[in-house]
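Section 3.1: Structural characterization of target chains.
Under the original work plan, the team committed to producing a structural model for every single-chain target entering the pipeline before any wet-lab resources were allocated. The record below documents one such target. The sequence was received from the expression subgroup and is listed exactly as submitted; it comprises 213 residues.
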Amino acid sequence: MIDNWDTDEQKSKLIEEILDSFEDTKKAPVHPTNPALTPVEILHVLPDEILWGNHYSEVVFDTDPVADKDEKLNQFKLDSAVIKSMKSSTEETYLGYYTKNKRRRLTNNENDDEVKYSFVREYRYRPQTFDSSCPPPYFLVFHEDHVSYAPIKTRVQMQKCSESSRSTNHPDLSIKTQQNFTPFARAARNAQLHQLGEEEEEEVEEVDDDASI
């Protein structure tokens, strides 16, 4: 949303364009290069009320972080990977890339809601934030009857550390799933939801959070 308008005329013009866009959604969509095509299904695209309050980052690797010959295992590791901020002996900050071992079983001393992750490699990183000069990208979540979207707040460029600069101590991670939002996280989420134009504070349905280390 733009806070500072140059002129009232610009503001009125933008409001008019927004109102016209609602009328355009009532028309049948036309393919940009082949007008003869007709849509098989049309889904509404709406802001995601649950995910909007979270901070999501797009992570870009210089090479494939997992190179397992078993394609199914390779995809499993990519889907379940965890990135953790770490410090070397010289206090240099880097990111550790961990993957879940599909074949590992919990021992009697471990809880059923804990998952073990093993270290893969270290990465140097360069974060990039989005501002008014560089609008943030969005990601889409497809549901049965609609599509929702939420913004990506930062982009992180990842570069593998050289052999000489790597650390040696990388113990396994034990990650316990978090079932409910903390009061602080719920308050922050509700506050950000109001930025979408909510008239009243809505109670956010409790969902499983991804994980907490």
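Confidence is low (pLDDT under 50) at residues 104-110, 198-213.
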